[in-house]
Write a structure and sequence with these properties.
Helix content is 76%, strand content 0%. The chain is an all-alpha fold and 199 residues long. The protein has one domain. Helix 2 packs parallel to helix 7, helix 4 runs antiparallel to helix 7 and helix 5 runs antiparallel to helix 6. About 14% of the residues have low confidence. Keywords: Membrane, Signal, Transmembrane, Transmembrane helix.
Length: 199
């Protein structure tokens, strides 16, 4: 029981720290010079990224093994590919729309307890990961090491997935499952707001 309380405390502090981040920095084009740190902060400082990446962890935890690790591994791997496309200047239409839609769709999947076949869930996550990665790659500062920057945004993304997984573990109880589905609803509502703003 003590380990559960410690875990809940660490999770709460992490979410509070994420909540104090300024969302205006994520897509402003004013990314500070740096490398790893700049890449690490990019997904964490944009609420449109945060909700989607937490939702991936929530959905994976809700679906259980092997989705609990497959979805959070698929997302950053495909996101890195999208980052390379963005850094190379390969155009991708509807970046902000795709990012906003990711929060809406994955949030709805959690809210409605969607249980598609694992390959379908992985493809959904992968498609949205391309948009997130492209945004990271496009906004990569010219002065930084691309490898350090990519490592930073992949690790930042992974930590957000872990927050989602940690909260998603509450599904082991009936009340916890309702809380997780409610969180999916909040994420979907925020995603809808971002989507309206992107259109």
């Amino acid at each position: 029981m003590n380990s559960r309380r410690l875990f809940a405390t660490v999770l709460a502090l992490t979410l509070v720290a994420l909540g104090t981040a300024s969302p205006a920095l994520a897509h402003s084009g004013d990314v500070a010079a740096g490398g790893f740190v700049t890449g690490f902060l990019h997904p964490i400082l944009g609420w449109d990224h945060v909700i989607a990446m937490v939702a991936v962890g929530l959905w994976g935890a809700f679906l259980g093994a092997p989705a609990v690790w497959l979805l959070p591994v698929t997302f950053p791997l495909v996101m890195a590919l999208g980052g390379m496309l963005g850094a190379a200047g390969v155009p991708l239409p509807g970046i902000e729309t795709g990012i906003a839609a990711s929060g809406l769709v994955i949030g709805l999947a959690v809210l409605f307890a969607a249980r598609p076949p694992l390959p379908v869930a992985a493809v959904i996550v992968a498609v949205f990961a391309i948009f997130h990665g492209h945004a990271h790659g496009t906004e990569m500062p010219g002065a930084v090491s691309p490898l350090a920057y990519a490592g930073g945004f992949v690790i930042g993304t992974g930590l957000l997935h872990i927050c989602g997984i940690a909260f998603g573990m509450l599904t082991r109880s009936r009340a916890g499952a309702l809380a997780v589905r409610g969180a999916g609803g909040v994420i979907a509502a925020l995603g809808a707001g971002f989507l309206i703003g992107a259109l």
